[in-house]
Specification:
The protein is α/β, with parallel strands linked by helices. It has ten helices and eleven strands.
């Protein structure tokens, strides 16, 4: 496990001054600048409407995996993922195929970021399935099992409570072996963090006062299932990653990052205000990422 703190960029909205006609060009510039500035990962939300904490649902929102394919073509080094995939929005076999395709076409840079889904309004609005919470977690665990089977040597059937696959063939296989890393988002102590301990290479938690407690809960689940806690990369959704328009917020940002590094957090991942202006990404690349790498 790496000891250095990485910084990741989360593109959480697409409502920029140029509007949809300029969106592809703006997003391409953001991806290139993020890679050139040293960001470790680049993610988009798996939402179809904008979420309330960031804006009204009518704001521009792109479908995640189509967007990740576009980002793969615009970059060559940065890792790519949906932060995080809503498990019930796609059938598991198709999801495994989507991530496999992204991995092959990006040269081995794909992750599977996944969670139990929460945005009932957009799901109901667009006619997507949204079963009760308990069932969504059952489907999440089965989806993880299916993805791992499809990325492994067994192309036989899968028979679960919710999903039934006759043949789990996946060709071409992922370039990343044994499989693309799995990140499970959320801090639920009974179900989510247990699934992290059992299946994932990374967790994602919020930068909140109970962060240290959540890490302790994860450690307990690792002990229960016989998993090495240190094998799991701890990531935090850090919102916003705001250096200030002229770098005036950099020192406060670094102070918070030092606290996270002290807890064993390996990546701070978040959205950058006014990201389309590019300058904030360059400021982070010049003044934050090199310092974080020494933490």
């Amino acid at each position: 496990m790496e000891e250095r703190l990485k910084i990741g960029l989360h593109v959480a909205g697409f409502t920029w001054p140029g509007g949809p006609p300029e969106l592809a060009a703006d997003l391409g510039r953001i991806a290139t600048a993020a890679e050139d500035s040293g960001f470790a990962r680049l993610s988009v939300m798996d939402h179809l409407w904008q979420i309330g904490v960031l804006g009204p649902p009518e704001h521009d929102m792109l479908e995640a995996y189509t967007t990740l394919g576009f980002l793969a073509a615009k970059t060559s080094k940065i890792e790519l993922l949906a932060w995080v995939t809503a498990v019930v929005y796609r059938e598991p076999g198709m999801l495994a195929k989507l991530v496999s395709t992204l991995d092959v076409l990006s040269g081995g840079r794909a992750w599977l970021g996944i969670g139990a889904a929460w945005n009932e309004a957009e799901a109901r609005g667009l006619g997507l399935p949204f079963p009760p919470t308990g069932e969504r977690f059952e489907r999440l665990e089965e989806t993880l099992q299916i993805c791992l089977q499809m990325w492994g040597e067994d192309d036989g059937p899968y028979q679960g409570k919710h999903y039934h696959l006759d043949r789990t063939l996946n060709s071409p296989q992922t370039l990343t072996r044994p499989h693309p890393p799995i990140l499970i988002g959320g801090g639920g102590e009974k179900k989510t963090l247990r699934l992290v301990a059992q299946y994932a290479q990374a967790c994602n938690l919020f930068n909140s006062p109970d962060l240290e407690h959540k890490l302790d809960v994860l450690r307990g689940h690792c002990e229960t299932v016989g998993r090495d806690y240190d094998e799991i990369e701890k990531t935090v959704m850090f919102a916003p990653l705001d250096p200030g328009s002229n770098g005036e917020k950099v020192e406060a940002l670094l102070e918070d990052l030092r606290r996270l590094a002290g807890l064993g957090i390996a990546e701070a991942h978040g959205f950058v205000p006014d990201v389309y202006k590019i300058t904030p990404l360059e400021l982070i690349g010049e003044q934050v990422i090199p310092e974080a790498a020494r933490m």
